[in-house]
Amino acid sequence: MSDARSPIRALREEAGVGGGDEVDAALGALFEEGRRAWPGLPLALSSWVRHVARHLPDRDARDTLEAHLASLHAADLYLACACAERAPGAVEAFLSRHEAALEGALRSRNIPPDHRDELRQEVLEKLIVGRPGAPPKIGDYAGRGPLGGWVRVATIRTALNFLKKAGHDRKAAGAEPDEAAEPSTPDPELSFLKAHYRAEVSQALKDAFAGLPADERNVLRLHFVDGLGIDRIAAVYGIHRATAARWVTRGREALLRRTQELLGQRLGIDEAEVDSVVGIVRSQLDLAVSSLFRAS
Fold first, then answer.
1. Distance from C-alpha of 57 to C-alpha of 65, rounded to nearest angstrom
2. Helices 45-54 and 2-15 sit at what angle, rounded to 10 degrees?
3. How far is CA 72 from each of CA 13, 24, 77, 181, 271, rounded to the nearest angstrom?
4. Where does residue 16 rank: exposed (0-12), middle (13-18), buried (19+ CB within 10 A)?
5. Which segments constitute the RNA polymerase sigma factor 70 region 4 type domain (predicted)?
6. How many angstroms separate the CA atoms of 77 and 50, rounded?
7. I want to staple 157 with a disulfide (CB 3.0 to 4.6 A). Which of 16, 18, 212, 276 is the partner?
8. In a structure prediction context, what are the per-residue pLDDT tens digits for the chain, which is 296 residues long?
9. Whole-structure pTM value
10. Rounded Cα distance, 86 and 73, in Å
């Protein structure tokens, strides 16, 4: 264990947090769990530490480093890190675990069969291979959610972009809930994403709201919970209605912006993919915001 202490200690210093043997043990245990899940994939502990350190959330977005480490999907994170480091056999291991889900996501978006292989290659190039000036996106995976869900989000987003460019009808192609009615037959991929990411979005909303200044929280409560319009809010504060409108808009934008930032940190996906996740659950977003404020 002595040879592992130095990089683990470096991780804590880079993250700007304190710690001791408990943190060292937690990180070491995660590494060993990942290695047991993928015994054929060589990965240096130093590479693992750098990967985890790069994706630590802000200090105000987590309780303790131990709690954060305990929430990570160790086996998925190990595989993602091995792919990012181009470890021998990593791509093959990734395909053996996630290729079927990738194919299923493309089928669920009604992608024409003759285009599925093209899009499959595009997704794999973006996630695993990388492009000139753009490293593989697998390096952005932070381990906060299952890697399979992360792959599905990236695949569905690629499929939707293709359908937009091809001019397909978005409703027939499985548009997001706020853009077209959902099909009467449940979509297993969409159901998975909603079930998984609804909890992540709700928690991010809660944390983002708690971090707003008190005046913004109060204005949003008046708007969402009490149902006050702009004129009523202006009367409450004795301000011009244009000022009240700016306050509501500013508070809502700050809430959504911080929510997206937290999701990006916690899910290990980029801003555009966060938009896709939020879009998938957007039909429940206003209800979630109202419920959040009523519980606050």
1. 9
2. 20
3. 20, 15, 8, 35, 20
4. exposed
5. 203-255
6. 12
7. 276
8. 444 446 677 666 665 555 677 777 788 889 999 999 999 999 988 888 888 877 776 654 445 677 778 888 899 999 999 999 999 999 999 999 998 888 887 887 778 788 888 888 888 888 888 877 778 889 888 887 788 878 887 787 788 778 777 764 444 445 443 333 333 344 444 555 555 566 777 788 888 888 888 778 888 888 877 778 898 888 877 788 888 888 888 888 888 788 777 877 776 655 556 666 666 555 555 566 666 665 55
9. 0.59
10. 20
Domain ranges of the chain: 2-84, 90-166, 188-295
Report how far apart, in Å, the C-alpha atoms of 280 and of each of 15, 50, 167, 189 are: 32, 32, 20, 11
Question: How many residues are listed for the chain in this entry?
Answer: 296
Q: Which CATH class is domain 90-166?
A: mainly alpha
Instruction: Using CA atoms of 259, 264, 268, 270 in order, give the dihedral in degrees to the nearest 10.
Output: 150
* CA pair distance 82, 38, nearest whole angstrom: 10
Fold of 188-295: Arc Repressor Mutant, subunit A (1.10.10)
